[in-house]
Amino acid sequence: MNAMSEHDTPTAPARILVVDDDPTVAEVVGGYLERAGCSVEHAADGPDALLRAERRWPDLVVLDLMLPGLDGLEVCRRLRARRPVPVIMLTARGDEDDRITGLEMGADDYVTKPFSPRELVLRVESVLRRTRTAAAPADPGPPLRGGDITADPVTRRATRAGRELALTLREFDLLAYFLSRPRTVHGREELMREVWGWDFGDLSTVTVHVRRLRAKIEDDPARPRFIRTVWGLGYSFEPENEEGTE
């Protein structure tokens, strides 16, 4: 089964950079991804990952958190400083702080070791599908507006009061979803399904991205006026800048 058939062509498979210092993990992950139709390159440490990415920019990076030379968080930061790239982090630690830190650095998802290689392939497929759909939407529609915030699905450019917002791919998708459905309560499960395209996953991914988005669009993220928390239910986008509480 070619898991990437919806968004890759036989002559242009998705380029995946797998960064892990464990050769067994790298071999297993690489094998599953290749069978899914991807072109896989392996780096065993942080500096090598940056060098390989510079030579051949990947479509997605599977990145271990604990690496020699440079850790995964620093590699993610340096990659994202160059240009956007989807990142799925691997970690052998179950500590929630590590997962949250990775998401706050801009990782699109994380998988905790030991993990199912098949599950990882499904997550890679999901992220790639969302990325390529965002790059060439079939019917992007007109710019979305709420208060003084605008998000243009064609250019994927978001502004507030005319000032451009530096949003990641997922932050833009989340903002666009909120703008297209204002004054409606959205549960985290709904956001995970509709924005991430996942029917499974840790819901803290949504929580972290909402927090990151608030930090970029709110005057005071501790007292959000646009993205309001509806306790026990989820989040609601209020375009008229009504005072809210977190």
TrEMBL record:
<dbReference type="GO" id="GO:0000156">
    <property type="term" value="F:phosphorelay response regulator activity"/>
</dbReference>
<dbReference type="InterPro" id="IPR001867">
    <property type="entry name" value="OmpR/PhoB-type_DNA-bd"/>
</dbReference>
<keyword id="KW-0902">Two-component regulatory system</keyword>
<dbReference type="InterPro" id="IPR011006">
    <property type="entry name" value="CheY-like_superfamily"/>
</dbReference>
<feature type="domain" description="Response regulatory">
    <location>
        <begin position="15"/>
        <end position="128"/>
    </location>
</feature>
<protein>
    <submittedName>
        <fullName>DNA-binding response regulator</fullName>
    </submittedName>
</protein>
<keyword id="KW-0805">Transcription regulation</keyword>
<feature type="modified residue" description="4-aspartylphosphate">
    <location>
        <position position="64"/>
    </location>
</feature>
<dbReference type="GO" id="GO:0000976">
    <property type="term" value="F:transcription cis-regulatory region binding"/>
</dbReference>
<dbReference type="Pfam" id="PF00072">
    <property type="entry name" value="Response_reg"/>
</dbReference>
<keyword id="KW-0597">Phosphoprotein</keyword>
<keyword id="KW-0804">Transcription</keyword>
<dbReference type="InterPro" id="IPR001789">
    <property type="entry name" value="Sig_transdc_resp-reg_receiver"/>
</dbReference>
<keyword id="KW-0238">DNA-binding</keyword>
<dbReference type="InterPro" id="IPR036388">
    <property type="entry name" value="WH-like_DNA-bd_sf"/>
</dbReference>
<dbReference type="GO" id="GO:0032993">
    <property type="term" value="C:protein-DNA complex"/>
</dbReference>
<dbReference type="InterPro" id="IPR016032">
    <property type="entry name" value="Sig_transdc_resp-reg_C-effctor"/>
</dbReference>
<dbReference type="InterPro" id="IPR039420">
    <property type="entry name" value="WalR-like"/>
</dbReference>
<dbReference type="GO" id="GO:0005829">
    <property type="term" value="C:cytosol"/>
</dbReference>
<feature type="DNA-binding region" description="OmpR/PhoB-type">
    <location>
        <begin position="141"/>
        <end position="239"/>
    </location>
</feature>
<dbReference type="GO" id="GO:0006355">
    <property type="term" value="P:regulation of DNA-templated transcription"/>
</dbReference>
<feature type="domain" description="OmpR/PhoB-type">
    <location>
        <begin position="141"/>
        <end position="239"/>
    </location>
</feature>
<dbReference type="Pfam" id="PF00486">
    <property type="entry name" value="Trans_reg_C"/>
</dbReference>
